[in-house]
Design brief:
Blueprint (H helix, E strand, L loop, with lengths): L2 H14 L6 H7 L2 H7 L6 H26 L1
Helix pairs in contact: 1-2, 1-4
């Protein structure tokens, strides 16, 4: 799979999982720079999604912690 296909697959996954585990961050905030940086070296769609999950999970967890304190 080339990078263009991997980016398209991650974008589809982000939109399909918008309300789960920080994927809204990817759908709303990521640009070409983030995709190029984090998908470098990925060979499969599943691998790309796993790699992005590892990047966004800590951010989503931190956001959830902040939101829990705000209410």
């Amino acid at each position: 799979m080339d990078l263009k296909d991997l980016i398209a697959a991650v974008k589809r996954h982000a939109h399909a999982n918008y309300d789960k585990d920080g994927w809204d961050i990817v759908a709303e905030c990521w640009g070409d720079g983030e995709y190029n940086e984090f998908l470098k070296g990925c060979k499969t769609e599943a691998g790309a999604i796993r790699k992005v999950t590892a990047v966004i999970h800590p951010k989503a967890a931190y956001r959830a912690e902040i939101e829990a304190e705000a209410f």
